[in-house]
Amino acid sequence: MEQDNTFYLTTPIFYPNAKLHLGHAYVMTLADTLARAKRGAGVKTYFLAGSDENTQKMVDAASKAGKEPLEFLKAIVENFTNLYKELDIAFDQFIRTTDDQKHWPGASEIWKRLAQAGDLYKKEYEGLYCVGHEMFISEKDLVNGKCPDHDTPPERIKEENYFFRLSRFGGAIKAKIESGELKVVPESRKNEILAFIDRGLEDVSFSRPKKRGWPEGLGVPVPGDDSQVMYVWCDALANYISALGFGTDDDALYKEFWPANVHIIGKDILRFHAAIWPAMLISAGLPLPKTIFAHGIITSGGRKMSKSLGNVIDPQELIEKYGTDAVRYYLLRHVSPFEDGDLTRESFHDAYTANLANGLGNLVARTMTLAEEHLPHPVELTDEDEKLDAAFVEKIENFRFNEAMDLVFAMIGAADGIMTERAPYKGIKSGDAVERETARKDIEELVRRLAKISAHLAPALPRTSAAISSAVRKNHKPENLFPRIG
Ligand code: MSP
Prior knowledge:
By secondary structure, the protein is of the alpha/beta class. The protein folds into two domains: 6-296, HUPs (Rossmann fold), CATH 3.40.50.620; 344-474, Orthogonal Bundle (Isoleucyl-tRNA Synthetase, Domain 1), CATH 1.10.730. Helices cover 48% and strands 15% of the residues. The protein contains 18 helices and 16 strands. It has helices at 22-40, 56-64, 69-86, 104-116, 170-179, 187-198, 232-237, 239-242, 252-257, 270-284, 315-322, 324-333, 345-374, 390-397, 401-422, 424-427, 433-457, 462-474, and strands at 6-10, 44-51, 93-96, 120-130, 135-137, 155-164, 183-185, 204-205, 207-209, 221-222, 225-230, 262-266, 291-295, 298-300, 303-304, 341-342. A six-stranded parallel β-sheet has the order 3-2-1-12-13-7, sandwiched between helices. A four-stranded antiparallel β-sheet has the order 5-4-6-8. Strands 9-11-10 form a three-stranded antiparallel β-sheet. Helix 1 links the parallel strand 1 (6-10) and strand 2. The radius of gyration is 25 Å and the shape is elongated. Bound molecules: 5'-O-[(L-methionyl)-sulphamoyl]adenosine (MSP). 5'-O-[(L-methionyl)-sulphamoyl]adenosine binds at residues 12-15, 23-24, 26-27, 52, 236-237, 239, 265-266, 268-269, 297-298, 304-306. 5'-O-[(L-methionyl)-sulphamoyl]adenosine (MSP) binds at residues 12-15, 23-24, 26-27, 52, 236-237, 239, 265-266, 268-269, 297-298, 304-306.
């Protein structure tokens, strides 16, 4: 990734129809780690989070819960932000698409530009709408009459909509992706979107008539046509610029941070981000994001962890039992960022015990016990002690979070090796002054290594990193970082 002075990172704005699950915690953890790494490197960083609220599925969920949509949203959004607090997700702004002050002006402005460019037209349309996807799907996608991803039958809808001329933009988007002006990572996703474009892009429905029963105040009104609201994906994608004040007088953030450096998304929403969104931006005469990073999907028992399928693991359950950093650790190290990964309570528990309780936690406890007892004062650290390895930085920059964590755990393993092979805990009690001095130096060496490990853990496991760093600075054994859990 090129070195810019600023770094703008966005995350998918989630549908607030139910509590967030580990799949959502996953993308937020990757994003937060990247944002912290950038801030740590002194880059001015803006990290956006939010919720995608003008949706049929939210209206359905609210009505099922017997609540008014806005009241229902309030509770769910609180759940989102509470989870982010518990997970130490340090975003700069949380944008809500029902926010008519913050979000609607930007969404309206981009709509007007599409209209001005002649890329919107009205037509009568009949199709199959999948509420799970919040998009029209085609007959040939169905299995036994149902959407195979959500296991629900689509709704047949006949209505007059505005359409966006996506079909015009295939060539332009392809050229941007192929030239690397718009990077799609990993390579497999780049090939996937190029193949999708090669099959021919079709125009997409971009608005919905306000239906009877559709809650007032929900949905961004189509500029100049009161009878329609914007299609939720058109409205949602605009969040990446509306949040920065695009389309308002207060657009300093937009000027400073757009184009985004990275949109982090899940691979299942690649087409919206790597086809529809770039087409909207080209049509509106706006710069394209630099990189789209599409991660894999977390499965549980082999199927996508999903609210609709009911096989979710609640991140709050794991945080309560194992702690924030244990959850961040698992997601960063044991799930491949580019492929799907299965997570079960057992695999989580085993990784925690082996690598955090017995691994890192044990090393810190043993080292700092020795240091507190046998070093007269804290080890004086140099810049070199806390300098990040170039290989580590490179891995994070390229979204190889698991490999970056492997590098840190190799450092932990090497320190463990020193503890075992040189056994300073024995030497320090020796009657021989030379042996005692060697052991003292080994302890000092181990403390320096902890400082290095702590520096590398700062973006990924901020609490653990701070606890280790404080222990080293005070020459004091910290509270048990990762207690054994039965
Ligand atoms: N609202 C849209 C995004 C609009 S962005 C302009 C949406 N919301 S979502 O709540 O369904 O999902 C949001 C993100 O969560 C997607 O990137 C999706 O890939 C991710 N995940 C949902 N389930 C997931 C897993 N089981 N595993 C990993 N990520 C998952 O789509």
